[in-house]
Write a structure and sequence with these properties.
Layout: H1 12-17, E1 49-53, H2 57-68, E2 72-76, E3 88-89, E4 97-98, E5 103-104, H3 109-115, E6 126-128, E7 135-138, E8 144-146, H4 147-150, E9 156-158, H5 163-170, E10 179-180, E11 185-189, E12 195-199, E13 204-207, E14 209-212, H6 216-221, E15 225-227, H7 232-240, E16 246-253, E17 261-263, E18 272-278, E19 288-295, H8 296-303, H9 308-322, H10 327-330, E20 331-338, H11 356-363, E21 370-372, H12 386-402
Parallel strand pairs: 1-2, 1-14, 2-10, 7-17, 11-15, 14-21
Antiparallel strand pairs: 3-4, 5-9, 6-9, 7-8, 11-12, 12-13, 16-19, 16-20, 17-18, 18-19
Helix pairs in contact: 2-12, 7-11
Length: 403
């Protein structure tokens, strides 16, 4: 097996699922085989109001499920738009370019699991990789390996769509009237019977329950404060969690001189990830788009480059060295996404090598009032993916309605 394509282990989770795959951008390549975050039986009885902080995948999923059960809720979103880290560019190519989460890493049944309505037909097109004929290349040695040999058997690409398109089509219509945009939260006071949520603009909202669905780096930054302060265990988990920096870029070339994936071995493995990949894979397009994905230290290397022109030249030099000087003469244009600069993300996602016990603490509710939903707030079986974020929202709503 090629050594430079990293196999993501996730400690106990791999032992349970016995599934290996190539690490790829902004997600886990491991599909959850646990039912802990996948219980759609939601008892009725709760009749209060819920505030959801954040309109990313978890916040939208939570709002959608509450709407289906006629529970009063509002979503407070800091940005002027929804989606969070499933942000998508629709102008660079003739197909959507995911600037954040890009792949489906579990069975397509996850779409129906989120929609939770057997009468709805999910019309989202995805394609698996050709595990026999698609080639991954070791950046250091040039050694080739098929995707089947690498264990890359589950992950799928969205075709002429993205995770954002899925949420926009099947989830957003039921929650659009409940989202308050440009409403960044500053404090959450859960000391009384009613929870008081204050914003940077001086507004105050009250609710019986709150679902915190913001990226973990936002909690680490301290821009949202809690009264009373969270428990020592919760605070320690937030402060000690290792959240990777994130940087993606897309280069258009006049010819396709690269394979499906070029893998890099980052040492130590927990310091981050990096790969080049065919971003136009499976699309009906004449364009040749090469994606660059990096987290952790590799991302910080790109982020530290002083200018966009210098970044372009740096990447073209990397590719020229790999592909016999074919990158520079075929270069057309590029775009990039620095997730560290996004004010309400500030990073990519929780390290794939984080301790599962710590992740479990991140996902626990507080005082039957605060519930946490998102790619970092899970039971510790799976994290750092859109499907994990959605399942954490399902779990949070289940628990909230029961208590």
């Amino acid at each position: 097996m090629i050594s430079k394509i990293k196999i993501m282990t996730r400690k106990e989770f791999v032992k349970i699922c016995t599934l290996l795959g190539i690490s790829i951008p902004f997600q886990s390549v491991l599909g959850s085989c646990s039912s802990d975050d996948n219980n759609n039986t939601i008892p009725t009885g709760f009749s209060g109001k819920v505030l959801i902080i954040g309109a990313g995948p978890a916040g939208m999923t939570a709002g959608y499920l509450l709407a289906k059960r006629s529970i009063d809720f509002e979503i407070l979103e800091a940005l002027p738009t929804h989606g969070g880290r499933i942000k998508t560019n629709t102008t660079f190519a003739d197909f959507p370019i995911p600037l954040g989460a890009e792949w489906l890493h579990v069975n397509r049944n996850i779409f129906s699991e989120i929609v939770d309505d057997d009468s709805v037909t999910i019309d989202i097109n995805t394609t698996p990789y050709d595990t026999i004929n698609d080639i991954a290349i070791d950046s250091a040695t040039g050694q080739q390996i098929t995707f089947e040999e690498a264990g890359f058997t589950i992950d799928q690409k969205f075709i002429d769509s993205s995770w954002l398109d899925f949420f926009q089509t099947y989830i957003f219509p039921d929650i659009r009237s409940r989202i308050r945009y440009n409403t960044p939260v500053s404090t959450i006071d859960y000391s009384g019977d009613q929870i008081k949520v204050s914003t940077n603009g001086g507004q105050t909202f009250e609710a019986d329950k709150v679902i915190v669905a913001v990226p973990l780096k936002i909690l680490q930054s301290g821009i949202i404060t809690f009264t009373p302060t969270l428990s020592n265990a919760k605070t320690d988990a937030i402060e000690n969690a290792h959240v990777w920096s994130g940087f993606k870029a897309f280069f258009e070339f006049s010819n396709k001189f690269y394979p499906t994936i070029v893998g890099y071995d980052i040492m130590p493995a927990a310091s981050g990830q990096k790969m080049f990949y065919d971003a136009a894979y499976g699309q009906n397009t004449p364009q040749h788009i090469l994606g660059l994905f990096s987290t952790g230290l590799p991302a910080e290397t790109y982020i530290s480059i002083a200018s966009d022109d210098a970044f372009r030249d740096f990447v073209l030099s990397e590719l020229d060295a790999l592909f016999n000087n074919q990158a520079t003469p075929n270069y057309i244009r590029h775009i990039s996404q620095n997730w560290n600069e996004e004010p309400y993300a500030r990073a990519a996602y929780l390290s794939a090598y984080e301790d599962s016990t710590l992740v479990n603490v991140l996902g626990k509710s507080v005082s039957d009032k605060l519930y946490f939903a998102g790619d970092s707030y899970t039971t510790g079986s799976d994290w750092s993916s859109v499907h994990a974020a959605a399942r954490s929202a399902i779990r949070a709503v289940n628990e909230l309605v029961i208590k």
